Amino acid sequence: MGNLIWSRVSIPDNKENYVSKYIFLDVDGTLVTYENHLPDSAVKAIKAAQAKGHKVYTVTGRSKAEMYQEILNIGFDGYIGGNGNYIESDDEVLAHRTLTAEDTNRIVNWLHERGLEFYLEANSGLYASKHFEERGLQTMRDYVAYKGHADEGMTVRKAFPEMLFGEDLNRSDINKISFILDSYQDFKEAEAEFSDFKVGTWGGRGEKALFGDIALAGINKQTALDFLLKEKGVDRKETIAFGDANVDIPMLEFCDVGVAMGSGGDGIKAMADYVTDATEEDGLYNAFKHFDLI
């Protein structure tokens, strides 16, 4: 089950390649606000950290199609997407596992049978189901509101500016599938139906479940970081991770230092080594200063 694209890099064994720290950043709610605003202070902090010799990676549930140019222009040293199924470093793909066409069709057919709207997440694009735009309008407004920033002007196209509509959903390049929950029971039934996959939820403040998602089992942000560090020959003692939600907890647990955003959920703030300010309150910049990364 699952497609695999794999390549390896050779790491020269010399001290000139030593990097002080590997810094791993979640995107939504950490690097950018829930309205997709990228604080200038975050960009300043990242560039200053890189100038000091650190490596900075994004580690996100987003597929590459959702890494918009404003984010890419920062110039990260690497990117981990799909909550761990895609790993890229220095513009080279180190690993990529996707759902097979059979996997995708099975999930899509089940969602259609239940009348649930969804979108397929691939590096090539975000592919919406037929009625996702209409059905998703209130859900996206709820998503922003539950994060503490009500916006009656929020739309699906504003939330996902490059989402593709009316495309063929019969695909073999899908990282994961997100679907709107009409009720929490939809998640429970998906979990039972797809017990051979990883089924989760995501949404608003306090981890409120607005969406379910389905991906390959045995992959998360922690497994991706473990693979990357082994490929790079980097000790976990040289790592620091930033996140805001429960999905980020494995990453924070794995790294030497785990930092939660002040706007994050109670679960991650309780387990973090340090809690910084909210994203929109210069949280990344202030934490980079606190840990002498800049």
From TrEMBL:
The record's annotation in NCBIfam families points to:
Cof-subfamily, HAD-SF-IIB
Query: What protein name applies here?
Result: Cof-type HAD-IIB family hydrolase
Task: Give the source lineage, highest ranks first.
Answer: Bacteria, Bacillati, Bacillota, Bacilli, Lactobacillales
InterPro entries listed in its UniProt record: Cof, HAD-like_sf, HAD-SF_hydro_IIB, HAD_sf
Q: Which GO terms describe its molecular function?
A: hydrolase activity
Looking up PANTHER family in the UniProt record yields: PHOSPHATASE YKRA-RELATED (PTHR10000:SF25), PHOSPHOSERINE PHOSPHATASE (PTHR10000)
Keywords in alphabetical order, please.
Hydrolase
Q: Where is the signal peptide?
A: none
